[in-house]
């Protein structure tokens, strides 16, 4: 996922960018409100989330949030030291999707980023009104966590389902290995790479569609939507 980090402190930005990169994010750093707004042209510019610090040198962070929301529907998480309820409500009313108060735990921040990005799944994956993702012969029922191929139910483990559902959210988009591990296993890449490979191999075998999940060498995996 591409993430726009809006932070005027270069030291803070460098440290946070390194953490986010380890978890599979492609981070672009904007040092001012104007730089952030330019980065989001045209229409979000492919960013999955904007992490917006409110203490900016050129514009009030709340004002920047309002301008972002007028230009794009990209999720915005405000980051600030202001912890009072009135400030949070003001930010949410301006269109922010979430609000993180400094100092924050990195794990919590990552969870909030994943949470707001998952809220846009319906737009990206064309989920039906019944909560079913339809990818050719493959139907993924999100409410019941059931998968079928040509009408026949395929028994998947919990992690196999989570992995398939994640890739199916954005068919054709490459998910980095680190991002998959972070979202499905809720841990870091170290020591978990082999587990991911095993689960991908198991999915290909169970679905009897080896070409459904494509390996992108040196990067990760993507789901190749089958023909309807």
From TrEMBL:
Residues 130-225 bind DNA. It comes from the Bacteria. GO terms for biological process: regulation of DNA-templated transcription. One of its GO terms (molecular function) is phosphorelay response regulator activity. The keyword Amino-acid biosynthesis does not apply. The keyword Transcription regulation applies. Residues 2-117 form the Response regulatory domain. One of its GO terms (cellular component) is protein-DNA complex. Keywords: DNA-binding, Phosphoprotein, Transcription, Transcription regulation, Two-component regulatory system. Residues 130-225 form the OmpR/PhoB-type domain. InterPro entries: CheY-like_superfamily, OmpR/PhoB-type_DNA-bd, Sig_transdc_resp-reg_receiver, WalR-like, WH-like_DNA-bd_sf. This is Sensory transduction protein RegX3. The modification 4-aspartylphosphate is found at residue 53. Transmembrane segments: none annotated. It comes from Streptomyces muensis. Pfam families: Response_reg, Trans_reg_C. SUPFAM superfamilies: CheY-like (SSF52172).
């Amino acid at each position: 996922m591409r993430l726009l980090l809006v932070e005027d402190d270069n030291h803070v930005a460098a440290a946070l960018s390194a953490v986010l990169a380890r978890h599979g994010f492609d981070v672009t750093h904007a040092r001012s409100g104007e730089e952030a707004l330019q980065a989001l042209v045209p229409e979000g510019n492919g960013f999955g989330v904007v992490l917006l610090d409110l203490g900016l040198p050129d514009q009030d962070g709340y004002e920047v949030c309002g301008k972002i929301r007028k230009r794009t529907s990209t999720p915005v998480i405000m980051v600030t030291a202001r912890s009072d309820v009135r400030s949070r409500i003001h930010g949410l009313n301006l269109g922010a999707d979430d609000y993180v108060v400094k100092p924050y735990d990195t794990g919590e921040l990552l969870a909030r980023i994943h949470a707001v990005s998952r809220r846009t799944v319906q737009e990206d994956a064309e989920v039906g009104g019944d909560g079913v993702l339809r990818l050719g012969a493959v139907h993924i029922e999100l409410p019941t966590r059931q998968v079928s191929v040509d009408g026949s139910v395929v028994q998947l483990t919990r992690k196999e389902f989570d992995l398939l559902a994640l890739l199916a959210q954005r068919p054709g988009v490459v998910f980095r290995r680190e991002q998959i591990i972070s979202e499905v296993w809720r841990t870091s890449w170290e020591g978990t790479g082999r587990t991911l490979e095993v689960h991908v191999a198991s999915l290909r075998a169970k679905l009897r569609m080896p070409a459904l999940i494509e390996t992108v060498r040196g990067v990760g995996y993507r789901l190749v939507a089958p023909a309807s």
